[in-house]
Design brief:
By secondary structure, the protein is of the alpha/beta class. Helices cover 28% and strands 29% of the residues. A hairpin with a 2-residue loop joins β1 (16-24) and β2.
């Protein structure tokens, strides 16, 4: 994938330039715990043919001529009104639109009023709840160094994702904040892209006690669009919101034979930027193979390994010992 990406970057006459917002006035906008996720995602974009540059949102110029898409990933601090206006002006592009933004919320940063207001102008809000599901799969989360359960989400709008190499593979969305669509009288058009199963439920991050589980279908990724027409041409700016930062964990992005995360994520980004799909081979891990049992399957395996097998060995040992003594 690295060789293919390098070749395509040379022959591509219109490379897509991405501005990755990592700092504000020289300080990181995310905690150290998220740096592994951000690095993995930046590497993932670069390998898939994007020309990535880091941006200090306070001091660097956010010029539409310099970037086709800006990425705001897992901020733990809110932005000032001037910075919010700066991002809005980038997307407006002097009325020409045709610019894009990807926003990935921080799991625990639930009080970012200015960023929330910016998203509300695009008819999207990030809930304070995490989407969970009893019918989940076991996934490795390399940045946390754990194996944990994750809801399996499905594609609700295939046009926003494109053609997947293997649509049978699960799409894991660990610790995803719920992405809500707001009913506002503006020009924004929201398309819900990834949704949970109907057995999913919410857990509020801000509540001291949790109420009864209310199962239902919840959205974990949406795209909001604003457009303008000039003659027969329509120009559109997009804000893509993905509720789970851990969807970009390197273990999930590289295991393309087990999970569909890499294909789905790059498909969504290619769709809003207009980048041709299928030009770059997705990154693959040749070092390890991972199984993805459901929570129920994992429970059965755990019972069998911890209790059943030792019990069988113990009973066999007792029988052998009894026979030898009775000889």
């Amino acid at each position: 994938s690295i060789i293919t990406s390098a070749i395509m970057s040379v022959v591509d006459s219109n490379p897509v330039k991405a501005g990755i917002i990592t700092k504000m006035n020289g300080n990181a906008i995310s905690e150290n715990a998220y740096q592994t996720e951000i690095t993995a995602f930046n590497t993932f974009l670069s390998k898939n043919g994007y020309d990535c540059s880091e941006v200090d949102i306070a001091t660097d110029e956010l010029s539409p001529e310099s970037y086709d898409i800006i990425v705001l990933a897992m901020p733990s601090v809110d932005f000032s009104a001037d910075i919010i206006t700066k991002m809005g002006d980038f997307l407006y592009n002097d009325g020409k639109y045709n610019r894009n933004m990807l926003y990935i919320p921080n799991l625990y940063a639930t009080n970012l009023p200015n960023i929330d207001e910016f998203l509300a102008d695009w008819s999207i809000s990030i809930g304070t709840s995490v989407v969970l599901d009893e019918n989940s799969v076991q996934v490795p989360i390399q940045s946390l160094g754990v194996m944990d359960t994750s809801p399996v989400v499905t594609v609700a709008d295939s046009e926003s994702v494109g053609t997947l190499p293997n649509d049978k593979l699960p799409i894991a969305s660990p610790y995803s904040r719920v992405v809500n669509t707001l009913s506002k009288n503006n020009e924004s058009k929201v398309t819900e892209i990834l949704k949970s199963s109907d057995t999913a439920y919410l857990r509020d991050l801000t509540a001291e006690t949790q109420g009864e589980k209310e199962t239902g279908v919840y959205t974990v990724a949406s795209v909001s669009s604003k457009s303008t027409a000039e003659g027969f041409e329509v120009y559109k700016s997009n804000v893509l919101v993905i509720g789970s930062s851990f969807m970009m964990d390197s273990a999930l992005l590289t295991n393309t034979n087990t999970y569909n995360n890499a294909s789905v994520i790059i498909g969504m980004i290619n769709n809003i930027t207009g980048k041709e799909t299928g030009a770059v081979i997705a990154d693959k891990s040749l070092q390890q193979a991972t199984i993805a049992p459901t929570a129920n399957e994992a429970r059965i395996i755990r019972i069998f390994v911890i209790y059943a097998i030792p019990l069988i060995i113990a009973v066999t040992g007792v029988i052998v010992l009894a026979r030898r003594r009775n000889r």
